[in-house]
């Protein structure tokens, strides 16, 4: 599960911080969207942004993977016998890597005025030594130890720590404190709040609280690092491995799409696998038109209206009391949500003052 920092994608090109909330479509569905075709989706009416011609990489969002950004070092199939670009980051030719990365950026972002999201998604290994102490990734620990004399000690932190966030919060705080150098070099945070088929054995509240824990920790890190913008990677299918899609139920639409918006993220990135995409096109269209599109449209309009009415368009709207409760719409279809300004409060950017985000003017103190 991708989380925050290098464990998640990192942004290195970003427009102005206080842009309007946006949802970006990063499904590899180019083949589904032939104009006037039976699987074409009109994303504009749902306030969903796409790359031109529905390209996976384009003018709004670009993702760089291991094989498309520089000379990323890793072990093919996690085998010590098949190192690529040195295998370990310690063995990578940094100068050659940066030269190749520059070329790759120019190739994938030819427009010098590009103002979308450019994301580096490296997942073969993790930036902290201790994070590689599980499953196949141990090859990076083992080879690092072989490279040096002596023993390197680390602390194993399980991927499941977020699922027990409320009892292990201190562990995660310490873990992310070690990642501060990554956050300081970043211009945004990209937490993943995916819910897979394996989570369906849990109660809806557990899944909801899992997503909430990831978002709360991301917000904590954001506040510690100059209010970094937050773009949550989410989806509306549990696992995309078959020819038919298994779409989120109403509880998980609330947990994975509505909840991030209620908690003030700057945007959502809807992601999916390309597996069996041609067979999934019609189902995805029906789901977007029936539930996902109307939900995002209503929540986007509510965010904009709330910012204008309560925050003078200079702050985020956060749903009141939402941190400690279950989905606020248990008896209501989430895609029929109606905005109520009394349910929201403002979170102002630095030079603006709570509660209505009025700009703080520097001047002489008032006379007594």
UniProtKB/TrEMBL annotation:
Molecular function GO labels: hyalurononglucosaminidase activity
Protein's UniProt name: Hyaluronidase
SUPFAM superfamilies in the cross-refs: (Trans)glycosidases
EC number: 3.2.1.35
Annotated organism of origin: Cylicocyclus nassatus
Disulfide bonds: 32-281, 306-317
GO biological process, one term: carbohydrate metabolic process
Keyword set includes Lyase: no
Annotated signal peptide: 1-20
Catalytic activity: Random hydrolysis of (1->4)-linkages between N-acetyl-beta-D-glucosamine and D-glucuronate residues in hyaluronate
EC class name: hydrolase
């Amino acid at each position: 599960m991708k989380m925050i920092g290098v464990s998640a994608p990192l942004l290195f090109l970003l427009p102005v911080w206080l842009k309007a909330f946006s949802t970006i479509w990063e499904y590899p569905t180019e083949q589904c969207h032939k104009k006037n075709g039976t699987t074409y989706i009109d994303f504009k009416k749902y306030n969903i942004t796409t790359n031109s011609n529905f390209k996976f990489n384009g003018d709004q969002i670009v993702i760089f993977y291991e094989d498309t950004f520089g000379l990323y070092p890793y072990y093919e199939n996690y085998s010590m016998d098949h190192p690529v670009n040195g295998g370990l980051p310690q063995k990578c030719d940094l100068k050659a890597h940066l030269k190749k990365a520059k070329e790759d950026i120019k190739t994938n972002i030819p427009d010098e005025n590009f103002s979308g999201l450019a994301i580096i998604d490296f997942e073969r290994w993790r930036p902290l030594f201790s994070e590689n102490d599980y499953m196949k990734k141990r090859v990076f620990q083992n080879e690092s130890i072989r490279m040096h004399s002596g023993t390197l000690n680390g602390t194993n932190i399980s991927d499941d720590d977020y699922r027990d966030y409320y009892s292990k919060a201190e562990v995660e705080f310490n873990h992310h404190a070690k990642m501060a150098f990554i956050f300081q070099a970043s211009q945004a945070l990209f937490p993943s709040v995916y819910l897979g088929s394996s989570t369906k054995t849990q109660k809806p509240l557990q899944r909801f609280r899992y997503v909430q824990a990831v978002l709360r920790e991301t917000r904590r890190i954001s506040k510690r690092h100059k209010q970094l913008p937050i773009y949550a990677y989410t989806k509306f299918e549990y696992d995309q491995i078959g020819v038919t899609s298994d779409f989120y139920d109403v509880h998980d639409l609330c947990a994975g799409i509505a909840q991030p918006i209620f908690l003030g993220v700057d945007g959502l990135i809807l992601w999916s696998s390309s597996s069996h995409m041609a067979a999934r096109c019609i189902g995805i269209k029906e789901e977007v038109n029936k539930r996902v599109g109307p939900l995002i449209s209503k929540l986007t309009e509510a965010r904009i209206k709330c910012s204008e009415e309560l925050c003078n368009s200079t702050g985020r709207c956060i749903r009141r009391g939402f941190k400690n409760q279950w989905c606020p719409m248990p008896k209501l279809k989430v895609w029929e949500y109606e905005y109520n300004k009394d349910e929201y409060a403002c979170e102002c950017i630095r030079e603006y003052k709570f509660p209505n985000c009025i700009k703080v003017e520097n001047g002489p103190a008032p006379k007594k």
